[in-house]
């Protein structure tokens, strides 16, 4: 995966963190519907096409599933914490790939000296 693709993924990770933050901030807002980012679709598009096929903001989706709460809010704090952990794992994976990419580039440059 290219550095540009990894940069794009970092932007998506940031958007997901913002969505989780918004979800948790609105946990008591009547009628609020949670937001989420579809990482799998983003990752597959970057893998298959080398770029996103839509603007990155289009990957933030509103979860319109029904709520078990009477006020219509469908934010589950436990699910948001799980999403936060998943997002941290995505971040960790992306930073590891970037680190390996730059480590390889550094080794090549050292061999050329």
From TrEMBL:
InterPro entries: FlgB. Its main location: other. Transmembrane segments: none annotated. GO terms for biological process: bacterial-type flagellum-dependent swarming motility. Keywords: Bacterial flagellum, Cell projection, Cilium, Flagellum. The keyword Membrane does not apply. One of its GO terms (cellular component) is bacterial-type flagellum basal body, rod. Structural component of flagellum, the bacterial motility apparatus. Part of the rod structure of flagellar basal body. Belongs to the flagella basal body rod proteins family. The basal body constitutes a major portion of the flagellar organelle and consists of a number of rings mounted on a central rod. This is Flagellar basal body rod protein FlgB.
